[in-house]
Structures are given as structure tokens and as C-alpha cells.
Design a protein that fits this description.
With 153 residues, the protein is mainly alpha-helical. The protein has six helices and no strands.
Length: 153
């Protein structure tokens, strides 16, 4: 096996893992998944949450195994751009959190620190989604490389 083949397989494995790993948690906390999806889709968040999880799973498996990988990549490209929007919206929500004026100064300071950390974390997660979108765009243009079950170029 050449270093080129190894590189392709490692990229496909890592990329698929990013989408498959969180699926059990998304399904276990379905209410949270729907609420998060509602930040992007105000109408029918339940349906759109289901479609989003389906795109994650189908897209990841299609790239991992190289079966209709370009179609999976197109779905994940759109999914990741939407994910960036969601993370920016959560970052904005974090920056706008507040406690009752009756809360202690210590509690106010703690919330302020948590809001900063949440905003930074979600902003960098949005940036991560842009990188994942770029990788999806790469797969869309180049296909899924060697050892794909359906290597159509």
C-alpha cells in the first residue's frame, strides 16, 4: 500500500468519525438535537433534525466506503455550512446571557467567564465547520480516492 493510499484512507476514516461519533448522543438527547436544529430551521425543527442526522450518517458512510461519495460530500458540505451558522448563533446567545440583578457579584462574574468561554468555543466550532466544509468540497471535486467501493471519477 502506497503512502498516497494510506493518506486517502486516513482522511476518509477521520472525516467519517467526526460525523458518526456524535450520533448516539444526538439520538439519546433528541430534545436537545431538535432545539439546536431549531436555531437554523424555525419551521419543522423535528423533521430537519432527522434529515440532518440522516445526512451525517449517510454522508459519512458514503465517504468512508467510497460509495456515492461525491453525493455524500455534497450533503455534508451543506450540513457543515449550516452548522457554522448554528455555532455563531449559539455564540451570540452566550454573549447575551445575564442573571437577575439580585444575583451575587460572584455569580455575575462566574456567568461572565462562562459566557466568554462558550462564545469562544462556539466561534471556533464554527471555524471547524468551515474546515469540514472545505474537506467535503475536496471529496466533492476529487471523489473518495483509492480503495473506494465505487471509484467513479
Amino acid at each position: 500500500m502506497s503512502s498516497n493510499e494510506i493518506a486517502w484512507i486516513v482522511l476518509r476514516l477521520a472525516y467519517a468519525w467526526v460525523f458518526l461519533k456524535p450520533v448516539p448522543g444526538l439520538l439519546k438527547n433528541w430534545a436537545g438535537t431538535v432545539e439546536t436544529t431549531g436555531l437554523l430551521f424555525k419551521r419543522f425543527p423535528e423533521i430537519n433534525a432527522g434529515i440532518s442526522v440522516l445526512v451525517m450518517v449517510a454522508g459519512a458512510l458514503s465517504i468512508l466506503f467510497g460509495v456515492y461519495g461525491r453525493i455524500g460530500a455534497a450533503g455534508l458540505l451543506v450540513f457543515n455550512l449550516g452548522g457554522a451558522v448554528v455555532h455563531y448563533r449559539i455564540a451570540d446567545q452566550a454573549q447575551n446571557m445575564s442573571l437577575s440583578p439580585a444575583a451575587s457579584p460572584e455569580d455575575q462574574k462566574t456567568l461572565e467567564q462562562l459566557a466568554i468561554m462558550a462564545a469562544v468555543g462556539h466561534t471556533t466550532s464554527a471555524w471547524k465547520n468551515f474546515v469540514l466544509a472545505a474537506v467535503a468540497f475536496f471529496f466533492l471535486l476529487q471523489g473518495t480516492g483509492p480503495w473506494s467501493l465505487m471509484n467513479i471519477n
